[in-house]
TrEMBL record, chain A:
Subcellular location: Cell membrane
Species classification: Bacteria, Pseudomonadati, Pseudomonadota, Alphaproteobacteria, Rhodospirillales
Protein name: ABC transporter permease
Alphabetical list of InterPro entries matching this protein: ABC_transp_permease (IPR001851), LivM-like (IPR043428)
Species this chain originates from: Thalassospira profundimaris
Main location: membrane
GO cellular component: plasma membrane
Membrane-traversing stretches: 20-41, 48-73, 93-112, 119-141, 168-187, 254-276, 282-305
TrEMBL record, chain B:
GO function term, MF aspect, one: transmembrane transporter activity
Topology within the bilayer: Multi-pass membrane protein
Keywords from the named record: Amino-acid transport, Cell membrane, Membrane, Transmembrane, Transmembrane helix, Transport
UniProt-recorded name of the protein: ABC transporter permease
Gene Ontology cellular-component annotations: plasma membrane
Keyword Cell membrane listed: yes
Gene Ontology BP term (one): amino acid transport
The family this protein is said to belong to: Belongs to the binding-protein-dependent transport system permease family. LivHM subfamily.
Residue stretches spanning the membrane: 12-37, 49-67, 73-92, 101-122, 142-168, 196-220, 232-258, 270-289
Protein's organism: Thalassospira profundimaris
Localization terms from the record: Cell membrane
Length: 328, 295
């Protein structure tokens, strides 16, 4: 252990450089991507990637498995859609309304959910989200089974026409980068450290004098707000908000993306989201049922590689050389 | 016409009966969940899928082999129970030493696979399952009309629930089970095959779900998605009851079913969510659940 400390910090330095280089390459790829791929597809990936990262903030860094994140994603999707379409809000304000609504919803759901731990937490969030689903089914402003259709994209800051696919893409990319940066900041802040300590040993965090429940609620609300950011943006991309976004299957999907990519890694959920969305796109044309494959991937992930793709990579020898292996 | 709280008594009793029937299924399903959780510490998300498999097993036995309802009541749970045993033996077993959440995620994936497969072959729409001859028709009780099959479901589910309770609380096998729940290592050191007990428990739980499924088949239609929405309600019920006690799961199941039925009479808009509201209230007042112990 001790002898390798020096070498590991040594490789860490080159590691950091390589990581920065990788990050730069990824960013350039994202800038070039819309000229190569179908922009709507890319925007969908970005929205779901942000959603999965927001979810991972809770599962990966606080150790809370929420089975109800569809409520925030889909809720924000409805809020944004409603204020943009019916009240004529500009897009940036519409998304902010979605974020605020999701955060409020997160505050209420979190207030109840953090009263239980572990497996019960998952069941409570699932039940509360289902309750919100029924609310959306019956409420006037969601238009029930039809959903909100034809939400206009409008003009960003009043002068950038978002109906232009490329404008829209770079807007979504901007939102995505801001969201990921926010998550990165949260995770690496003192607040994030306390969240991780709660994940590792809740009792000890309590005995150190932290009011664990407040931190959990804080993380829950932040995760909900960021999921809302993804949901609101998604509404503008597809120009509709439907019950699919609030249904429990959506909560399952985001868990899968995170699990597949790697719980508790920054980039894992992005990778997982890309994989799942691509898969859905390919299977949409065939008659093969997507849920069967999704379920199979779930089972294989849980049985064989619980660290996920990125997690396994980070733990591999190459990952260690790049300084990606976590210290535990 | 006799009125209760401004509602015609027929409507009142009718909804009460529907509530009681829903409650019967809630009770049987939450009972199975509680047993599985008690032993395996796994929340069985596939419980809804196993309920659906029970209904399908009954229907397919009838159409392919001409097996009637009464034999299906035996065979469907056995078949589904066997699939449960296979799943436990080859997959779930590997997850016991991990965080309990992995069990939930695995069975969630399993539920998706099972439901997706059935949907692929049988479509999303429901298929009818005829009520057995002897139980069709109804009796006029004077104040209301009671379809015999529904009466049978209520009675049968009570028998199943009480039977399971007796099995676990009063028999030698049940004593082993309870002991293994408390301290598996100690029980194993007494020479009892605990891994086998775990396997059988999961099989029993899956079989119970299937039994509920075949009993539900003549009332609701047999459809691939019949279990998926139900299971979420059952989860809420389990949170309300707390999974600590078998009897607690049974009582909560019936009580919330009836409450849901009554809500349909007085405030229909809320009938979908009343159980979730109750769950939220219980979380405020008694986070461990009505019959639960703080873990």
């Amino acid at each position: 252990m001790n002898t390798s400390t020096i070498t590991s910090t040594d490789t860490n330095n080159t590691g950091t450089r390589i990581q920065l280089a990788l990050l730069a390459v990824a960013f350039i790829a994202l800038l070039v991507a819309p000229f190569v791929f179908y922009p709507i597809f890319l925007m969908k990936v970005l929205c779901f990637a942000l959603f999965a990262c927001a979810f991972n903030l809770l599962l990966g860094y606080t150790g809370l498995l929420s089975f109800g994140h569809a409520a925030f994603f889909g809720g924000a999707s409805y809020f944004t859609g409603y204020v943009v379409k019916e009240l004529g809000f500009p897009p940036e304000l519409g998304i902010l309304v979605g974020v605020a609504g999701a955060a409020l919803l997160g505050l209420v759901m979190g207030f109840f959910a953090i009263r239980r731990q572990g497996i019960y937490f998952a069941m409570v969030t699932l039940a509360l989200a289902q309750m919100f689903y029924f609310f959306c089914l019956q409420a006037e402003f969601t238009h029930g089974e039809d959903g909100l259709q034809g939400v206009p994209r409008g003009h960003l800051f009043g002068f950038i026409d978002l109906n232009e696919p490329l404008n829209m893409y770079f807007f979504v990319l901007g939102v995505f980068v801001i969201g990921i940066f926010a998550i990165w900041r949260i995770v690496h802040s003192p607040f994030g450290m306390i969240l991780k300590s709660i994940r590792e040993n809740e009792d000890r965090a309590i005995s150190l004098g932290y009011s664990v429940n407040r931190y959990k609620l804080g993380a829950f609300v932040m995760s909900a707000a960021l999921a809302g950011l993804a949901g609101g943006t998604k509404t503008l991309v597809f120009q509709f908000a439907t019950l699919t976004d609030v249904a429990w299957q959506m909560s399952g999907e985001v868990i899968l993306m995170t699990l597949l990519g790697g719980i508790g890694t920054i980039f894992g959920p992005i990778f997982g989201a890309g994989f799942v969305v691509t898969l859905q796109n390919y299977l949409a044309a065939s008659s093969f049922p997507v849920t069967v494959l999704t379920g199979l991937i779930f089972m294989i992930c849980v049985l064989v590689f619980r660290r996920g793709i990125i997690g396994e990579f980070n733990a591999s020898r190459l990952g260690a050389r790049l300084g990606l292996r976590t210290k535990q | 016409m006799i009125m209760i709280f401004g509602i015609p008594i027929q409507a009142f009793l009718g909804q009460l009966l529907i509530g009681l029937i829903n409650g019967s299924f809630y009770a049987m399903l939450s009972l199975g969940l509680a047993i599985i959780f008690g032993m395996l510490r796994v929340i069985n998300f596939a419980h809804g899928a196993q309920y659906m498999m029970g209904a399908f097993a009954g229907m397919l036995l009838l159409t392919w082999l001409g097996v009637n309802y009464w034999f299906a009541l035996i065979f469907a749970p056995v078949i589904v129970g066997l699939t449960g045993i296979v799943v436990e033996r080859f997959a779930l077993r590997r997850l016991y030493n991990l965080d309990h959440l992995y069990g939930l995620l695995f069975t969630f994936g399993l539920a998706l696979v099972v439901e997706g497969t059935f949907r692929y072959f049988y479509g999303s729409s429901g298929q009818p399952y005829a009520t057995p001859e002897i139980l069709s028709g109804g009796v006029n009780l004077g104040f209301m009309y009671l379809p015999i099959y529904r009466g049978w479901v209520v009675v049968a589910s009570l028998i199943v629930c009480i039977g399971t309770w007796v099995l676990i609380e009063k028999t030698r096998l049940g004593a082993y089970l309870r002991a293994a729940t408390e301290n598996p290592i100690l029980v194993q050191s007494f020479g009892i095959n605990v891994p086998l007990l775990l396997t059988l428990t999961y099989g029993l739980g899956a079989g119970l779900a299937a039994l509920a499924g075949i009993m539900a088949a003549p009332i609701y239609q047999v459809s691939p998605l019949m279990g998926s929405n139900l299971i979420i309600v059952v989860f809420a019920i389990v949170v309300v009851g707390g999974m600590g006690s078998i009897l607690g799961a049974i009582i909560t199941g019936y009580a919330l079913g009836i409450l849901e039925g009554l809500t349909k009479v007085f405030y229909p808009e809320a009938s979908n969510i009343v159980i979730f509201v109750i769950m939220a209230l219980v979380l405020l007042v008694r986070p461990a659940g009505l019959f639960g112990r703080e873990a």
